[in-house]
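Section handout, structural biology tutorial.
Before the tutorial, make sure you can parse a SMILES string by hand: atoms, branches in parentheses, ring closures as digits. In the record below the ligand is pyridoxal-5'-phosphate, and the chain has 407 residues. In the tutorial you will relate the predicted structure tokens back to the input. Do not try to memorize them.
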Amino acid sequence: MKTDDAAVTRETFDQVILPVYAPAQFIPVQGKGSRVWDQQGKEYVDFSGGIAVTALGHCHPAMVAALKTQGETLWHTSNVFTNEPVLRLARKLINATFADRVFFANSGGEANEAAFKLARHYAITRHSPCKTKIIAFHNAFHGRTLFTVSVGGLPKYSDGFGPKPADIVHVPFNDLDAVKAVIDDHTCAIVLEPIQGEGGITPATPAFLRGVRALCDKHQALLVMDEVQCGMGRSGKLFTYMHYGVQPDILTTAKALGGGFPISAMLTTENIASAMAVGIHGTTYGGNPLACAVAEAALDVINSPEVLAGINECHERFIQALQDINEKYQVFTQVRGMGLLLGAELAPRYQGRGRDFLHAAALEGLMILNAGPDVIRFAPSLVVTFADIDEGLARFEKAVVQVTGAA
Ligand SMILES: *Cc1c(COP(=O)(O)O)cnc(C)c1O
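Predicted structure of the complex:
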């Protein structure tokens, strides 16, 4: 049935969108900094950050300026022609990291698809055609393409789509002995998130990450770090690997890279990059001038000592306030995470009720996330103010009162 296409409501969603999401009942229409307004003009504090994407809040002036300027200059050329913003952004990412080469795409899943193909291709061409095993982890999330859901550690996302890419094994995260038990000279890569995001905000332990690096070196396997969610300042350093002193061979990032404009990047070394050649992989939109100009603006702001130091100050304030709330209501068993990627694991009596907290928070004017059914996730703007943290967590406390029935 074709109806009036001017007025759209939450009911419209149920009529027109492929039924793979269950969005909140309100529809955001405007954002500024850490605040969002819905169709009825109700105001929210945003600690969801569009799932760790809007790293500089909504409509940050530097990003709006970059978007407007590039939008009136040149949008798209394809990779048949290169462009200035992509070259500037690549150079800045290389200068800031271990990497020598960058491949740009449009989403985290696509960057990971490129990373896994690169790891396989490198091993097959430099070592042996049977060096194809990928070791990955339970509860890992790497995207929704068939290869990336298969490397991901949640079978519910990869089941039901026919034959899966082969030679991928999953072991428990932070369990070095489990990796030792499956790694061999046919292993081409170990793939991990330095902080598991969707899986529940679980940081790698330093000993685990160092051990994985050593095993990769011993078996000539590549260490692929998926920093799609935890990269670009989220952890309090530009990339999470920098906290550990453990270098990846391939790193992917996305989400915060464009601050809401779709873009992703895969970073690697000169040696590994040289396994590729013209035509072996590619994308139409990846590295387009519009996305790269916006990402360059985001990177310039995020990768400054003031902003990175501010993230760590906000971390302290957040953790302290969450612990204060927990002392009053005993809703969590643990508050964890790094920088401004925080997870609060629900106490046994509230497990499975993550969505109830999200719903109660929305009623109080607060946008938050869950990470699985048992963890409440906070991924606010990296430049959130103390005032917004305090207001948002005051609203969160009211939501906790609602759900727990505490007075
Ligand atoms: C979000 C996410 C992805 C997938 O990114 P998309 O842009 O949704 O394709 C991959 N890996 C991690 C760790 C993520 O958090």
